[in-house]
Amino acid sequence: MAETAYVSIKGVIAGYGGGDVLKGVEFDVPHGGVTCIVGPNGSGKSTLLKTVSGLVRPRLGEIWFKGHNLVGMSPKEILGLGVVQVPQNHSLFREMTVDENVELGAFLVKDKKVIESRMNAVREMFPIIVERANDKAGSLSGGQQRLVEFARCLMLEPDLVVLDEPSMGLDPKTLKIMFNTIKMMNSMGRTVLLVEQNARQALKMSHFGVVLENGKVRLSGTGTDVLNNPEIGALYLGGSIEETKHAS
Ligand SMILES: Nc1ncnc2c1ncn2[C@@H]1O[C@H](COP(=O)(O)OP(=O)(O)OP(=O)(O)O)[C@@H](O)[C@H]1O
Ligand SMILES: [Mg+2]
């Protein structure tokens, strides 16, 4: 993995009108890696991801990607640069089939042959979208829907995949499949920026970790550095007494 910054977040201040949620966030997302943001509920993790994908416009600060400042660009323009976000809440059209949902991911692609070849590529990665192709998306389990959302986001062949708590509500088996899928997307050359409550497991597979607390970066470093920080372990990683006793 190259250590060059792929996304450079500089002094980002953002909120929803009732005070600032992000209070000067600053860090780099390395190119080609998995970067994981952890932190308590309400610390601004989802808001931060939304500033990257253009759904929330910062009041101040810059977010640099491929020579563009994303701040002020529309979500569609940002999508066009190769940034695709899978949101925290399930986002499939429940009354549409799995196939239709996946194909929607390629809405910016006009060439039918390209769409078909990408459909075939994601079918190989996610057997579920073949098995359940003609079923309504709403009839799938939460974990299966998550995988369909991944498949849909890959239809744009994104350079940067932004995932907000992909493991939320998944059973342990699907959780494993989901984490393996993230590793696979990354090994295919996609840079991944994700938020995870399942912090210990996520940081283990991440090259870079960021702890967000009350709208500011409390700590950042390699995934292992963050994982092994005794204070952080006790506070945010749900560390067992066994795992965190060196902290006391
Ligand atoms: N659309 C919104 N309008 C107004 N306030 C919002 C909105 N979305 C989030 N907030 C507020 O912004 C703060 C940060 O929320 P955010 O969703 O970014 O946190 P989070 O770290 O993702 O939390 P969680 O772990 O619960 O997902 C919270 O106080 C929340 O209530
Ligand atoms: Mg959130």
Structure, explained:
The protein is an alpha/beta fold. It has a domain at 92-155. Helices cover 37% and strands 25% of the residues. The protein is built from eleven helices and ten strands. It has a six-stranded mixed β-sheet with strand order 6-7-8-3-9-10, sandwiched between helices. Strand 7 (160-164), helix 7 and strand 8 form a beta-alpha-beta unit. The longest helix is centred in the C-terminal third of the chain and has 16 residues, at 172-187.
Write a brief structural summary.
By secondary structure, this protein is an alpha/beta fold.
How is the largest sheet built, in terms of strand order?
6-7-8-3-9-10
- What summary fits the major beta sheet? 6 strands, mixed
- Note the overall shape: globular
Structure classification? alpha/beta
Please estimate the helix content: 25-40%
Q: Which percent range describes the beta-strand content?
A: 25-35%
End-to-end C-alpha gap: 35 Å
Helix-strand topology string: EEEHEEHEHHHHEHEHEEHHH
Average pLDDT reading: 90
Low-confidence stretches: 239-248
Helices, by number, come to 11
C-alpha-based Rg, rounded: 18 Å
Number of strands: 10
Hetero groups: adenosine-5'-triphosphate, magnesium ion
How is the secondary structure organized here?
Layout: E1 5-15, E2 20-30, E3 34-38, H1 45-53, E4 60-65, E5 68-69, H2 75-80, E6 83-86, H3 98-104, H4 112-125, H5 128-131, H6 142-154, E7 160-164, H7 172-187, E8 191-195, H8 199-204, E9 208-213, E10 216-222, H9 223-228, H10 230-236, H11 241-244
Parallel strand pairs: 3-8, 3-9, 6-7, 7-8
Antiparallel strand pairs: 1-2, 1-4, 4-5, 9-10
The structure holds adenosine-5'-triphosphate and magnesium ion (MG).
